[in-house]
UniProtKB/TrEMBL annotation:
Pfam families: ANF_receptor, Lig_chan-Glu_bd. It is found in: Membrane. GO terms for cellular component: membrane. Residues 180-245 form the Ionotropic glutamate receptor L-glutamate and glycine-binding domain. It comes from Ixodes scapularis. GO terms for molecular function: ligand-gated monoatomic ion channel activity. Transmembrane segments: none annotated. It comes from the Eukaryota. Its main location: membrane. InterPro entries: ANF_lig-bd_rcpt, Glu/Gly-bd, Peripla_BP_I. Keywords: Glycoprotein, Ion channel, Ion transport, Ligand-gated ion channel, Membrane, Receptor, Transmembrane, Transmembrane helix, Transport. This is Ionotropic glutamate receptor L-glutamate and glycine-binding domain-containing protein.
Amino acid sequence: DLHTLDLRHFYSSRCNLTGFQLVDPDKPGLKNHQDERVVAGADPLAMLSPRAKEFQRSSDAALAHDAVLSFARGLQALSRARSLEPKHGATCDPGSTPWAYGLSLATQIKAGSVTGLSGRVQFDSFGARTNISFNLVELKDVGLSRAGTWDATRGIHYRQNYSSLYQEVALSLRNKTFRPYVMLKSGSKTTASEGDRLEGFCIDLLREMALLLGFRFEIRLVRDSAYGVSNEHGEWNGLVREVMDRVS
């Protein structure tokens, strides 16, 4: 039910937020169902709870809707095969006389299938639901985006192309900057000190710590723009070399 939450505060935050979604809010069947409620007039549920709109799109509401739909279809199929006689005063109390068509109704429900708000509803011989699937969604700059699907047969199947993300990571590795932690300021002059050319979460955190603890610091980019690798002679370069030489 991630789609029922207000995630606007996390837009453009590059927050890694991933979830599974049983109910697709953009599914035509769900939209038609909501439109029918609007055309029918005031919804009694909306008067009971201010979160009624979110509940109508939730997994619980969709599963309840599909359960009633499966029951109705099973009852309809059973009524075609035999004449059903209502039993007055039927209860679920211990010792009460059960409805004569209960087992037949359960058989009809398990034998049939319906397309509900949570997808295709089918059951095995034990009454457990089969062929269920979920959408895999991820938070993007403008909201949730479908990244793939999950089902019991294939598992997770990704649809999204991550080549652009890999290119961005590779660029960050070359520049030794990581958004939003350490970034080069847009339009910064090359003549400015390296500390003044950088911004981001880690830079802000370092400055606040310096104010609280009373220390001074200097930010300097690695001269050869490398983290450090060892050559065939066992000599290191990059940041590792500067640490070994006590330069950094």
